Recover the amino acids of this structure.
DNA sequence: AAGAGGCCCTGATAGC
DNA sequence: TGCTATCAGGGCCTCT
């Protein structure tokens, strides 16, 4: 589920729910996530008051008083759920919703507030938590990552310079967080389709217009996805309403065998594996 | 420096 | 029905 748009949707809901509240207690049922949760985690967060919930790329950043932070990455299968004693049945959105649909297994971490519980669920345990104790360390944490697609630093100069001499497929770079932060496999495929660029084209072979297309379509598609509440793939079937809906607008992702959705294009959507990831593209207009 | 590949883990689904 | 194989939205690490 979680690429930048989905993480942003979670951020918005989480921020509304927990800003200005204090964590009363932290319960950890399984410390063995992608990285082991440190022993000091519970005591560090206890009684800390939340100023706001931020996000960089696919990382949630809970901002506490006194320059303390907790970073959450959802990995491939992480979701955040809330139990609200006051509004037990009101949904917010797919990966952040209220109690009747709380999974029975894999609830690894709980933040307890007054009248409120925030629960982290993650079957594959590719997600992780980190604590950070000052602003300098926070900056350092993301220093080696590329700009977000929305950033002014993600511009033609940057992309042309970066792609120069790069002999990898262009799609690999959209997935490379050192080049641009926040894009995953779904949106990489969609961005290249809208840009009419073959995913297997070598980055150094892209012309200026193609680079510009990648830049503007990255911004456009991620913003559209946020506006639609993200994409809900392989989600719990019994949740109605408040799902993200961008999956209905996929032009190529998981559309192999279908006719190309571009008006007047006679192509067929194909699927090929590249770097262990499924790659979808039109064999006609993306050539 | 850049690129290819393996690996962490569980669950859903397809094929026999 | 029940087995096995494959694949999944991510990112880190190692080897060449």
């Amino acid at each position: 589920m979680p690429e930048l748009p989905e993480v942003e949707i979670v951020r918005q809901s989480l921020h509304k729910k927990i800003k200005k509240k204090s964590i009363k207690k932290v319960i950890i049922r399984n410390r063995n996530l992608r990285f082991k949760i440190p022993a000091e985690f519970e005591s560090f967060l206890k009684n800390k008051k939340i100023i706001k919930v931020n996000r960089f790329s696919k990382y949630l950043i809970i901002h506490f008083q006194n320059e303390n932070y907790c970073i959450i990455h959802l990995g491939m299968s992480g979701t955040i759920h809330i139990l609200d004693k006051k509004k037990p049945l009101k949904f917010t959105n797919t990966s952040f919703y209220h109690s009747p649909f709380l999974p029975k297994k894999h609830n690894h971490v709980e933040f307890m507030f007054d009248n409120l519980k925030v629960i982290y669920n993650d079957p594959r345990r590719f997600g992780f938590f980190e604590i950070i104790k000052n602003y300098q360390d926070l900056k350092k944490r993301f220093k080696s990552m590329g700009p977000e697609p929305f950033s002014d630093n993600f511009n033609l100069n940057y992309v042309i310079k970066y792609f120069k001499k790069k002999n990898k497929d262009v799609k690999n770079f959209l997935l490379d967080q050192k080049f641009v932060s926040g894009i995953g496999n779904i949106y990489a495929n969609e961005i290249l389709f809208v840009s009419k660029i073959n995913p297997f084209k070598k980055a150094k072979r892209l012309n200026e217009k193609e680079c510009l297309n990648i830049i503007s379509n990255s911004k456009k598609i991620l913003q559209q996805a946020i506006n639609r509440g993200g994409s809900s793939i392989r989600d719990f079937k019994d949740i109605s309403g408040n799902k993200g809906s961008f999956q209905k607008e996929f032009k190529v992702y998981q559309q192999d065998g279908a006719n190309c959705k571009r008006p007047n294009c006679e192509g067929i959507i194909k699927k090929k594996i590249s770097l262990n990831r499924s790659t979808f593209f039109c064999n006609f207009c993306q050539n």
Notes: Chain A has two domains: 4-141, 156-282. The first strand of chain A starts at residue 25 and ends at 28.
